[in-house]
Amino acid sequence: MKSVSLLLVIGLGVAIGAGACASNPPPQTAPQPNADSAAAAERARQDSIAAAQAEADRRAREEAERVARQREADSIAALSHTAEEVRATLATMIHFDYDKATIRSEDAAILDQKVAILQANANLRIRVGGHCDERGSDEYNLALGNRRAQAAKQYLVSHGIDAGRIETQSWGEEKPLAQGHDEAAWSQNRRDEFEVISGGDNLRRPS
Amino acid sequence: MLPRKGMGLDSVRAIVARDLDYSDRFEVISLPGGDSIRLATPSSGGTKTAHSDRTLSAALNYPLYQALGADFALDITAAGDTTVGTLHDIAAAGVRRTVRAVVPRSTDPEFRQAVHRLADQMVQAALGTAGIAATRVLFVKDGKVYQIDQDGADQKLVSSSDRQAMSPAWESDGRRFAYMEFQAGHGWLYVQEMATGKRSAVATTGTALDFTPAFSPDGQTLAFSRATEEGTDIYTINVKNNCCLRRLTVGHFSDNLSPTFSPDGQRIAFVSTRPGLPQIYVMAADGTDQQLFAPFDYGVTGASNAPEWSPDGQSVAFHRDVAGTLQVFVLDVRTRTVRQLTSVGRNEDPTWAPDSRHLAFVSDRSGYRQLWIIDLETGRIRPLLQQSGARLPAWSPRLSEAPSSTP
């Protein structure tokens, strides 16, 4: 190693607006009709019967409408409950062993459910996202995540789903689900995620 | 070293001293006693102010420096906006070289690089080989690309979008870099100009997951990895004419990724999973003659990834899984033998300095992942960045024009 001495010498200088509302005066009392006439009394009685009848009819009509609305609402709720269930089943993730892209036997059943949903909903298109844990190499994990997404896609396609309905992507280790640095977190992060691209409204339950 | 008062020169002195230290080629001697020491022979009257460059040069107290064990003495003076570096050869008792450099004010963004280039010239004058002071490292943090000077100064965001980015890679002239960005479910490759920040998408990108770009030495070709339904393979594209996609590997049941060109542009080292675990392979730049590059013991050696060919062509640095954690290795290209460089903590993604003897890499040896620099000759290790989460470093070539020199 060479040695150098630093010798440093300085040179020369371095040298609202709110509007008020007037209230209207109360209306004057209307003049009373002459009620001594029997004919007038009878007319008044008939009028009140008709009014009561009309009132009863109106109430019955309203009740019928209310019941109809309730039934409709109940059935919409039931429908969306089904769609919600189907959506949740569709989104269920599958997981992988370290540095592996093989579908685990227990995850095959999860993929079978997705096959059924895709068959019951012909317009449904999905995207599979492959993810990795932080242990492997950052860039290699992009290739591994791709393998994992392709593995799920191949499973679905081999069970009769059109390949054109399934997109894949890899996020490598860039989107961890669990933030820890132990196997508990890593095992959750080695996964495929499934999301709806289109045709996800009013999902039907497989029959 | 002498205590000094000049504003600009104070910084110049500190920067140059640190550059020489970080070159790992010098032992910098600090003069004891500061300015009480007699720098010049008595006949010169100890002049150390105006135009002392010439005065001191003529009358430098060479025997004193020789007694201190110095081989060289570096004299830096400033006159107006010109900074003069004079390298004295102590044994020869004379001036080895004088370099005049226009160094902008210390508030100028170009100030530090100008000083670094001066330091590199001094190293060149002393040893005949240029230093690595005027270089930068690109890295990724929180999904963004940043640059930082090799001495840890001037960290700056260079990403020009909010999308998540990975894998920055320099063009060999240091004017542009390529990187990958996640976008709409795919990996897009971009080439961005350092000076303007202007960027353009690489032709054919955006249809698949493209990643790990690498420039050919002539800057005309970009090699990269593309993940499709068939797996991951290596492609090249002509980035000069934005044409001519070529596929170099056909993996079928294995992945091929992370290409890195030899400095003569003739070969590409890469990662392949054809033996099961990823290992380091090499091929001709046209994709022919693919073969194992870094030897491994089947069933014993761990996964090997992230190769980068050294600028002198003699080595390929990479990382390998050793007992469940990653360590930096260097392959000797001629003998095809590997040696392990690190053993403390997890160490990964090595990148070469232009002197082919320093590597920047990611290590968690201090408790969290950050960037470190190792000198392969002395084994000395220093942190480049004291921040958690930095990764995927890429060390630049020597940057910009050198200042005018008078030998």
Topology:
The complex is a heterodimer of chains A (207) and B (407).
Chain A: E1 2-8, H1 38-91, E2 94-95, H2 105-120, E3 125-131, H3 140-158, E4 166-172, H4 183-189, E5 191-198
Parallel strand pairs in A: 3-4
Antiparallel strand pairs in A: 2-5, 3-5
Chain B: H1 7-22, E1 26-29, H2 52-59, H3 62-68, E2 72-79, E3 82-89, E4 94-102, H4 111-127, E5 136-141, E6 144-149, E7 156-157, E8 165-170, E9 176-183, E10 186-193, E11 199-201, E12 209-215, E13 221-228, E14 231-238, E15 243-247, E16 256-261, E17 267-272, E18 279-284, E19 291-292, E20 304-309, E21 315-322, E22 325-332, E23 337-340, E24 347-352, E25 358-363, E26 370-375, E27 381-383, E28 391-395, E29 405-406
Antiparallel strand pairs in B: 2-3, 3-4, 4-29, 5-6, 5-28, 6-7, 8-9, 9-10, 10-11, 12-13, 13-14, 14-15, 16-17, 17-18, 18-19, 20-21, 21-22, 22-23, 24-25, 25-26, 26-27
Helix pairs in contact in B: 1-4
Protein traits:
heterodimer; A: about 210 residues; alpha+beta; 60s Ribosomal Protein L30, Chain: A; four-stranded mixed beta sheet; 4 helices; 5 strands; B: about 400 residues; mainly beta; Rossmann fold; Neuraminidase; 2 domains; four-stranded antiparallel beta sheet; globular; disordered C terminus
Structure, explained:
The complex is a heterodimer of chains A (207) and B (407). Chain A has 207 residues and is an alpha+beta fold. Chain A has a domain at 83-198: OmpA-like domain (60s Ribosomal Protein L30, Chain: A). In chain A, 46% of the residues lie in helices and 15% in strands. Chain A has four helices and five strands; from the N terminus they run βαβαβαβαβ. Chain A has helices spanning 38-91, 105-120, 140-158, 183-189; strands spanning 2-8, 94-95, 125-131, 166-172, 191-198. In chain A, strands 2-5-3-4 form a four-stranded mixed β-sheet. Chain A starts with a strand and ends in a 9-residue tail after the last strand. In chain B, a hairpin with a 5-residue loop joins β12 and β13. In chain B, α1 packs across α4 (111-127). In chain B, strands 2-3-4-29 form a four-stranded antiparallel β-sheet, sandwiched between helices. Chain B folds into two domains: 7-132, TolB, N-terminal domain (Rossmann fold, 3-Layer(aba) Sandwich), CATH 3.40.50.10070; 136-395, Neuraminidase, CATH 2.120.10.30. Mean pLDDT of chain B is 88; it is low at 1-5, 33-38, 40-58 and 402-407. Chain B has 407 residues and is mainly β. Chain B is 12% helix and 42% strand. Chain B has helices at residues 7-22, 52-59, 62-68, 111-127, and strands spanning 26-29, 72-79, 82-89, 94-102, 136-141, 144-149, 156-157, 165-170, 176-183, 186-193, 199-201, 209-215, 221-228, 231-238, 243-247, 256-261, 267-272, 279-284, 291-292, 304-309, 315-322, 325-332, 337-340, 347-352, 358-363, 370-375, 381-383, 391-395, 405-406. Chain B contains four helices and 29 strands. Classes of the chains: A alpha+beta (207), B mainly beta (407). At the A-B interface, β1, α3 and β4 of A face α1, β1, α2, β2 and β12 of B. β1 (2-8) of chain A pairs parallel with β1 (26-29) of chain B.
